[in-house]
From TrEMBL:
NCBIfam families reported in the protein's UniProt record: modA
Name of the protein: Molybdate ABC transporter substrate-binding protein
Protein family: Belongs to the bacterial solute-binding protein ModA family.
InterPro entries: ModA (IPR005950), ModA/WtpA (IPR050682)
Keyword rRNA-binding: no
PANTHER family documented for this protein: MOLYBDATE-BINDING PERIPLASMIC PROTEIN, TUNGSTATE_MOLYBDATE_CHROMATE-BINDING PROTEIN MODA
Organism, scientific name: Persicobacter psychrovividus
Keywords: Metal-binding, Plasmid, Signal
Secretion signal span: none
Domain of life where this protein originates: Bacteria
Pfam family, one: SBP_bac_11
Length: 245
């Protein structure tokens, strides 16, 4: 009987032990796959890390309305600045990488043929400029070719949906984040060298720790991961996805 009592006491004690606190990351769609790899090679315990991916604009809206994220990895510096201006950032903003545009086509064609192709019925997809920073880059590029192209473009919610369109094979052209090229097998469509005037189109991608009423351990975990984003191992991995520094 005494043994049973001790076993029950032990079980009760173990049930009362606190579960590890989850550190939640909001990550822009262009960084989803790189983040998965960054977490896998993170030199500290990462069993407590979870993330939600989407367009930077939508994630910003969620955070601004109180969504319980500890770290925001954005595709640009606009949304992080707005959070900082609203007093919702703990510490400094970090530019962890610079992102660039990529152009994909289903057929082996030149970028110069895009306008004529669309006039002949080809379909081009870009991330929505209202929600996705890479959509703004794509919009700038299309307007330089011909303003009429924007009215013909299919607007995906963000980079992830744009990449899904590429994977479907149902569209002819796509302008997306350059990290997308690493997601597809060689020979799946064609990735184009950018015109010289487009190489200057880039995004200062920032990450910030969100100021909220989280436990101290979650705050420290977020700060530690932010430091890791600025480390050499992190930059080496991101370089494989076409990011620059």
């Amino acid at each position: 009987m005494r043994i049973i009592y001790l076993c029950l006491l032990t079980l009760l004690f173990s049930c009362q032990q606190e579960k590890p606190l989850t550190m939640r990351i909001a990550v822009a769609g262009n960084m989803k796959k790189p983040l998965e790899e960054l977490i896998a090679q993170y030199p500290y315990d990462h069993s407590h890390i979870t993330f939600t991916s989407g367009s930077s604009g939508k994630l910003y809206q969620q955070i601004a309305h109180g969504a319980p994220f500890d770290l925001f990895i954005s595709a640009d510096d606009r949304y992080t600045k707005m959070l900082a201006d609203a007093g919702m950032v703990e510490g400094n903003r970090l530019v962890y990488a610079y992102g660039h545009l990529a152009v994909w086509s289903k057929q082996h064609k030149k970028i110069d043929e895009l306008k004529k192709d669309v006039e002949n019925g080809a379909r081009v997809v870009i991330p929505n400029p209202r929600l996705a920073p890479y959509g703004l880059l794509a919009k700038t590029a299309l307007l330089e070719i011909d303003p009429s192209l924007m009215s013909e473009a299919i607007l995906a919610e963000g980079v992830m949906q744009t990449n899904h369109f590429i994977a479907s094979g149902n569209l002819d052209w796509a302008l997306t984040a350059n990290s997308a090229e690493a997601l597809f097998d060689k020979g799946y469509g064609y990735w184009h060298p950018l015109p010289a005037k487009w190489t200057e189109l880039k995004l200062a991608q920032e990450a910030v720790v969100i100021k909220r009423k989280q436990a101290d351990v979650q705050l420290q975990q977020a700060k530690q991961f932010l430091d890791y984003l600025n480390s050499k191992p992190s930059k080496d991995l991101l370089a494989k996805y076409g990011y620059s520094f």
